[in-house]
Amino acid sequence: MPKRRKRGRPGKTVRMRRLCGSSPWNVSHPWSRSQGSGRMGVCCGKAARRGNSNRASIAPNLRKRGKVCQDFGASCELPHDGPPTRRTRRRWNGRCESGTAIPRTEATGDRAVKRPSGTRDRVIRRARGGGPPSRLTFPCPCGDESMRRVSGNAARHAAAATMIGVAVAGLFAWFVWSECVIDVPNEHVAVLIRKIGRDLPNDMEVAPGPEYKGVQAELLKEGRYFRNPFEWDWEIHKQVQVPPGKVGVVISLTGDDLPAGEFLARKNDDGTWTKGILPDVLRPGRYALNPYMYELELHDAVTIPAGYRGVVTHLAGPLPKVPNQLLSQPGERGVQPQTLDAQTHFVNPYVVRISLVDTRSQRFNLAETKDMGFPSKDGFWVSLDGSIEFRVDPERAAEVFVTYNDTSNGDRVDEEIIRKIIMPNARSFCRLEGSNSPGRDFISGETRTKFQQAFEEAMRQACEPLGIQVIQALITRIRPPEQIAEPVRRRELALQEEKKFQQQILQQQEEKKLAEEKALVKQKQALVSIDREIITLLTQAEQEQKVSVTEANQRKGVAEFRLQAAADEAAADLARGSAEADVIRFENAADAAGWRKAVAAFRGNGAAYARYVLLQKTAAAYRRIMANTADSPLMEIFRSFVETDAAEAGAARSVRSSAQSGR
């Protein structure tokens, strides 16, 4: 490699460098790269970085390196999009399209572009005002072979760099995913462990904050988290599960130690717990607990069935203020007066103990002891059998439990009640009361009934104050000694037979009375039925009479209405007849008036008028008349008119003559 000449001396060669690109025959410009436009190119060497160089000084050096072609007079054009500015100055490598370095100062057509040689970053700018030249023209001193060799090397270098970058990125991604990701699956938690930081004090097991080394109190639940593996370590643990029907007791493994005699953990002001058993419990479910801080114990939940009461005993807490009492005050250590109802209770077995007390009714047979009996007044041993039904008073279950419970029976108190209350009181009553009566009295039913009633009352009075309710106490059988039992039994049988016969006599008498009463009842029933029939007939007759009278009145009213209607109709007929008669009369008067005037026209001769009318009526119908005057019917008609006229004329003459004579 030739020596490097000083900067600024003309005629000296400068050191050349290879450049890599993508495509030959294109040129990259600094202003194109800064403005995001233009085309990138490939070159076989950079322009001179320092000093001035010309065609004469560059060519020998390039020939020695084997990178300058013989056709030094060729030229190339450098297209560009615009000139750079001072703000976007970059190092520019003038290259021709074949990749050969270009001198610093060349002609550019009609304008000159100056490349200052005294600076590391070369800037092409116009010599005088205006926009940039459209093209830059330089001679091309190189050929195509060197350009192809440099282009292949540049492509290989670019591919290698790309592969290295991809490999580095893949390694980084693999490192992050495999070492930095905390993937907490479902139903699990992640416990964080700090690798760097302040050391823990000797009395601490868990770091109080993230600035300390060791196990952290904070847990990571289900999900994906990112932590620096150089600072953190983690462990995946399964969440604790409390199954149904169980209760979880949490034990704190960290914190301050408890005072002597205490086992329940205390909660500090900062929310942390001391060592010991936590008083609260976990119900069935899933919980996220730090295994370095807490431990979980599973216990059965207390189920109180129906008919039972739960007696609560506090195992922790302050001691009773008043000692030597059966029951403690609420909140104090000991048996509590309040009991629990029938249901499932989730309690801490280290804090509370629940004992089941059966409050249902129970039956005890006195014959189970096989020694139940008493000596009678006359010295005979009388054995008996009976049953007692009792129950524990639910309101006093705690008192009964404390008083009569024995550790040998667990939580059961029924056997202790029978052994300590029922049997002693039953034996005491039977021996005291039974010894006051002779043995034969217990064979009869009356003595046995009285003895049973007294026994039940005595048992109730003895057990009620102790919290035991006696529901029923029965003496089912009394067995007197056989020495007195047989004769007394025969006597009793005879007495029973006598009573039976007397009872039969009384029964017959009662049956007689019953028959008489039945006959009287039947007689009364017959009388009542007859009276009922009489009353029914009378009632029916009265009803029929009322119906008949009602119907007669109705018919009478109808007849009256009809009579009135007939009278009205008769009056109407009379009025109608009178009207019609008047009409006829008026019509006749009118006709008579007309006839009177017509007759007056014939000088008062009615016959003449009649003849006129007859002739008027018949004249129109006859065209020719041929009749015999002697026996013709038609002529008879006319003859009557002639005779009538003659009679009337004679009458008129007589009247006139009489009138004249009167004058």
Walk me through what this model shows.
Helices cover 40% and strands 20% of the residues. It has 663 residues and is α+β, with helices and mostly antiparallel strands. The chain has six domains: 30-157, no CATH class; 185-300, no CATH class; 302-357; 359-480, Tetrahydropterin Synthase, Chain A; 510-594; 606-662, no CATH class. The radius of gyration is 76 Å and the shape is flat. The protein starts with 29 loop residues before the first helix and ends with a helix. Mean pLDDT is 74; it is low at 1-145.
What is the secondary structure topology, with strand pairs?
Blueprint lengths: L29 H6 L19 H11 L8 E6 L26 E3 L2 E4 L10 E2 L8 E6 L4 H36 E4 L3 E7 L19 E7 L2 E4 L5 E7 L1 E3 L3 E7 L23 E7 L2 E3 L6 E7 L1 E2 L4 E7 L19 E7 L3 E2 L6 E7 L3 E4 L7 E3 L5 E12 L4 H8 L9 H21 L10 H19 L4 E12 L2 H120 L4 H14 L13 H30 L1
Helix pairs in contact: 5-6, 8-9
SSE-based structural type: alpha+beta
Number of strands: 24
Biggest pleated-sheet summary: 4 strands, antiparallel
State the helical fraction.
Answer: 25-40%
Overall body shape: flat
Ends: how far apart? 215 Å
- What radius of gyration results from the CA coordinates? 76 Å
- Overall pLDDT: 74
Helix run count: 9
Give the amount of beta strand, in percent. 15-25%
Uncertain spans = 1-145
Overall domain count: 6
